[in-house]
Amino acid sequence: MSFILLLLEWKDFTRQQIISFQISAGVFGTLGAFLGGVLGDYFEFLPRGRIYIALTSVIGGTIFYALFLFSNAYHSAVFWYSMFHLWGGWTPAATLRPICAKLAQNASERAQIVAAWILLEKTSSAIFGAPLVGFLTKRLFDATNNASDEVALSNREKADALAFNLFVLSTLFWFICAYFFVLMARAEAADGSITPKRRLTRKISTV
């Protein structure tokens, strides 16, 4: 979030406009989480329905995030930022938490899964998140300064460089995320697990 605030400042948005970005992120993020839960439950009866919802969220969220990063006008930027939070936050409520609850046999296993999940998430974000973005952006600034005989960069040039690095890194890791969801869908298909609809059909047929 700190890099997003810096990006908005370099795009010459006012403080009131930057605050509106934070408000829209909170409001539409909350609505997005609720919508993700509703969609996950609605499509649960389809084979791999929850996983397809997650893939839709990841791919759509990536597109909206890229449109936000490279938007220089306030209204378009806040619109795409709101759409990103509305669309890109479906995976926890629609897919990850229900699947973890389905895999766990008891409360102890659920706690272990959630603990490992949070550990991997926080560790990877601490290593590959802000430090890597800062390192790549600083190198890009240094290379640009050396090429232009130490001429100071404008805010627009800094914003473009930061937006490019945020786009490259976020897109890379979101595509890795989508790849693992594809593997999850293939594993579920190969496992032949019984969906709620098939389970209900089997119960009816045995009556």
Walk me through this protein's architecture.
There is one protein chain. With 207 residues, the chain is mainly alpha-helical. The chain is 84% helix and 0% strand. Helix 3 (49-69) packs antiparallel against helix 5 (91-103) and helix 3 packs antiparallel against helix 8 (155-191). Residues 194-207 have low confidence and may be disordered.
Task: Give the averaged pLDDT, no decimals.
Answer: 81
Tell me the distance between the termini.
56 Å
Shape: globular
Number of strands: 0
The residue ranges in which pLDDT falls below 50 over 5 or more consecutive positions are: 194-207
Can I get a quick summary?
The protein is an all-alpha fold. The chain is built from 9 helices and no strands.
